[in-house]
Please model this.
Amino acid sequence: MFIAIAISMAIKFYSGGMTTMSFFSVAVALAVVTQIFRVYTASYLWGRQAVTQPEAEFLTTVGPYAYVRNPLYLGNFLIGIALCLALNEWYAYVSFIVGYIFVYSLVLPYEEMYLEKKFGRLYSEYKSHTGRLIPKLKGYKSGDGVTPDFLAGILGEIHVPLILGLIFLVIYLLFVK
Model:
């Protein structure tokens, strides 16, 4: 997905495109709010969200997880849209969305299969009451006793705002008029 954004930045650069400060400002605001949401979400995983293969010591069904099963992936989508908004080019949106659909159409079924195998009926019930990527308005009620660890959430996500800050700085320097 970030490759799609990088390619869109290259196309915009070589075509001489510019973006307005208003689009850029809205994009940065959306990214900041979304990153705060991602830190909050990661705190319910105790900072254990960055893994290369599915693993779970516990099933989190409270906080943002009471409404959507994959709030971090929802956050990734919103951050990608924020980057597209900063670029303000139709091809950025198309390439990002195609990349997002491709990646998560592979990742999500694999993770859900793992969670169903590990947690069985508990996960199946949870899955039936929550949205995969689009939050449901009524939260899932469980006896889950997971409490957030905000420091772990911050430390687990510290690389994301640094990378985003760098990307937004490049977009600002190259494209904002």
Summary: The radius of gyration is 18 Å. The chain has seven helices and no strands. The mean pLDDT is 92. Residues 90-119 form the longest helix (30 residues).
